[in-house]
Amino acid sequence: MLSSADKEIRAGEARLVLGSSSPRRRRLLAEDGYVFDILSPDADEVADADDPAGSVLANAIAKNEACRRLRPDAVILSADTLVWMAGRIFGKPADIDEAAEFLRALSGRNHTVFTAVAVSSPSMERPMSRIEASVVRFRTLDEAAIAAYIAKVRPLDRAGAYDISDYGDIVVERICGSYTCVVGLPMEAARDLLGKAGAFPAKG
């Protein structure tokens, strides 16, 4: 599904770059019919537990601007996601022990997933952006359920040590808000911003 450096979106002849190495964002964008290149942006990230929405917005814009320097010709889509609960940010766990500790802390409680999307085109002075927030209710997990989940997934590259699209039913009871926000790229916001930048799916 990935394009070469010269591949273009058919509608509007606009090149699209996904500024993220996340396989989940890549899958969501490809499933929607977009043709795109991938860059892994080198940008300093912030994680302020007192301002999770501001943190994801700053990070998404920083990633976008880092990609813009490498691909000034392209429409750039970038995003950032944080898991937040009770004044604490749950990032990617350092090891399996921390992954288990994250899941214990989230067990039986609500937490909020914040995702910011930033989109820019060569004609824009500054990226357009949107912040989405979804509330996730975790199931009550015992040690056996935590161990079983960790054995099934790779928790170390996932914020909060879980992925709702990968055996998510084991840990997630319900969601209030956008499912794709929790995955890592709220597609309704992404489609709207990409359309405003002149980038559309290749199919249809």
How would you explain this protein's 3D organization?
By secondary structure, the chain is α/β, with parallel strands linked by helices. The protein has a single domain (11-196), classed as Maf protein, CATH 3.90.950.10. The chain has six helices and seven strands. Strands 1, 2, 3, 4, 5, 6 and 7 form a seven-stranded mixed β-sheet that branches. A hairpin with a 2-residue loop joins strand 3 and strand 4. Helix 3 crosses helix 4. The chain is elongated.
Which helices and strands, and how do they pair?
Blueprint: E1 16-18, H1 23-31, E2 37-38, H2 52-70, E3 75-85, E4 88-90, H3 96-106, E5 110-120, E6 128-138, H4 143-152, E7 172-176, H5 179-183, H6 187-196
Parallel strand pairs: 1-2, 1-3
Antiparallel strand pairs: 3-4, 3-5, 5-6, 6-7
Helix pairs in contact: 3-4
Percent strand equals 15-25%
Largest sheet: 7 strands, mixed
* Parts with pLDDT < 50 across at least 5 consecutive residues: 1-13
Amount of helix: 25-40%
Distance between the termini: 16 Å
CATH third-tier fold name:
Maf protein
Number of strands: 7
Structural class: alpha/beta
Question: Which architecture name does CATH use?
Answer: Alpha-Beta Complex
Which radius of gyration do the C-alpha atoms yield?
17 Å
CATH class: Alpha Beta
- Return the string of H and E elements: EHEHEEHEEHEHH
Mean pLDDT figure: 91
Enumerate how many helices there are, as a single number: 6
